[in-house]
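Work package 3, deliverable 3.1, input record:
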Amino acid sequence: MNEMKSELEIFREFLKNKGMRYTPERETIIKEIFDTHDHFDVDSLYISMRQKDIRVSKASIYRLIPLLIEANLIEAVFFEGGQMYYEHIYGHEHHCHLRCINCGRIQEFADPRLRDIEQELADRFSYQIIRHKLEVTGLCPECRNRQD
Amino acid sequence: MNEMKSELEIFREFLKNKGMRYTPERETIIKEIFDTHDHFDVDSLYISMRQKDIRVSKASIYRLIPLLIEANLIEAVFFEGGQMYYEHIYGHEHHCHLRCINCGRIQEFADPRLRDIEQELADRFSYQIIRHKLEVTGLCPECRNRQD
DNA sequence: GTATCTGCAAACCCTTTGCAATAAG
DNA sequence: CTTATTGCAAAGGGTTTGCAGATAC
């Protein structure tokens, strides 16, 4: 029991509900995103697909991203150096990011207190909370020792 | 006692230490930023200055922002609709943002548990923490009732 | 006096979009 | 068959930059 649908199945249903089409291009992009265990930006995703001889246009990637976000399969995690970075979230526990401001290294972490904070904000300000994003920046052990 | 330096004094010293110059343009931009009690983006700051007949080029604003961030006078708070929003932080308690995804309304809040979380992350991962940014998104009371 | 700063306009770069050909359902 | 999607290339739009004149110090 507790069979979990794959991201492809989820997305296929999502598209069907919107009267949209499931195409090979969309499928290969999603596969590539979910095969990557890292955060990604459009350009590096595009390059990594080209290196594997998977031909899709950047426009198709750009057009797909808002759909994947709406379907709750990916999330924008941070904006850095003029571009947005995303990560796939389907099938993963929600987590936050501790990022080294010097080398870019990212440490993921989760903290149960954030749920409490969300709940209290909902009560206090009568908001319906959708999500939270906690980004902590600092210097990782290596960069700290190099005192950059 | 406990005389607090003004943002202008702080910045003047910051520039001096870097062998840079304190100009009337820089001064008027900082004044405008600190007179505004809201978050701002470059374009609206520029427009609001022009309306008061203060003439500075956008380029000067863009060139000033990284300096103000380095001097810890302002901070980038979120990226939305293709542009970055900032707020002045000097002289204010650190706080986080609860943002309505529908109308853009922002509720500020602070939570002491975030300091604890920072401290624990520092211990656990040996990072030297610089700052945190918690962004909570949801629907404000009004937008929630309109069920957008 | 000298090196920094300013304004302007052009360049940049990520992202979006119009269009004609293609393909999903 | 009909309507959505694709790739391409051009347009958009925020941000950066080269340059010549102005100006802090």
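DSSP finds six helices and five strands in chain A.
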